[in-house]
Design brief:
Strand content: 5-15%
Number of strands: 5
Radius of gyration: 18 Å
Bound molecules: zinc ion
Number of helices: 10
Strand order of the largest sheet: 1-2-3-5-4
Helix content: 40-55%
Number of domains: 2
């Protein structure tokens, strides 16, 4: 079934409300996207775990705990087709309305990025910006969402460097996503939202950092890292920074 920008397939009985939500998330991303984007989004909403595993090829018996995953056929030239967001019906059912909107907006950012070919970006930047846009109008506070990370920072201090790509698949990936999210908040504060979004969607040639490495942003890795570590420290509970 279709609703505005969204198309939903699969046998979920909630297809209509999922389509309405996905349409709204696509509009939200479209509004801030610094270049025209169609906003077209395809959601696969299975009704059962069996249907979900058939769509994703996930092995039975173990649950990732991930409510939504963006999949695509990526071609050798970097183009992607058959871009779709697959919902895990069991995890999805446990989310609040607010949680569903955050997750679907995050995946919408992946869809928009996949619809335009681009060179490789560091994972912290892609996931951090997906989180940034997902939480932008959510009304949720960073201290609340990132509480486990901030408690760790209060205990052990901030990490020395921005998360590596490999950290995003580790056991403490929720904290790593929060690290990336806060790094992108800081980048937006320093460079402006539009400039940061342009770095995210621009062609690889425009994203060469000052030293020609993987730093895609219009500010140096060192400046961003220092500001990010200071922000983590400021946000950490009992840091003496006051309420
Ligand atoms: Zn993501």
């Amino acid at each position: 079934m279709s609703y505005g920008l969204a198309r939903v397939s699969g046998s979920s009985p909630q297809a209509r409300e999922i389509a309405a939500l996905a349409h709204s998330c696509a509009q939200q991303v479209q509004q801030v996207w610094p270049e025209p984007w169609s906003g077209n989004i395809h959601i696969e909403a299975p009704a059962t775990d069996t249907e979900y595993r058939r769509l994703t090829g996930a092995p039975p018996g173990q649950h990732s705990g991930i409510a939504a995953t963006t999949l695509a056929d990526v071609h050798p030239d970097g183009r992607a087709s058959n871009i779709r967001v697959v919902l895990d019906p069991e995890v999805w059912a446990e989310l609040t309305a607010q949680g569903r909107r955050v997750i679907l907006t995050h995946e919408t950012v992946h869809v928009a990025l996949l619809q335009h070919p681009r060179g490789p970006l560091p994972t912290w930047f892609v996931e951090g910006m997906a989180e940034y846009l997902a939480y932008l109008d959510s009304g949720l506070e960073v201290a609340e969402v990132a509480a486990p990370l901030l408690q760790r920072v209060a205990r052990d201090g901030p990490p020395d460097r921005l998360p590596t790509d490999a950290q995003f698949t580790g056991d403490d990936r929720a904290e790593v996503y929060a690290q990336a999210w806060i790094a992108c908040q800081v980048a937006v504060r320093l460079a402006g939202q539009e400039a940061v979004l342009r770095s995210l969607i621009g062609p690889a040639a425009q994203r060469q950092g000052q030293n020609g490495t993987s730093q895609p942003l219009p500010l140096s890795t060192r400046r961003l890292t220092n500001a990010w570590r200071a922000e983590l420290q400021r946000l950490a509970p009992d840091s003496g920074a006051g309420a």
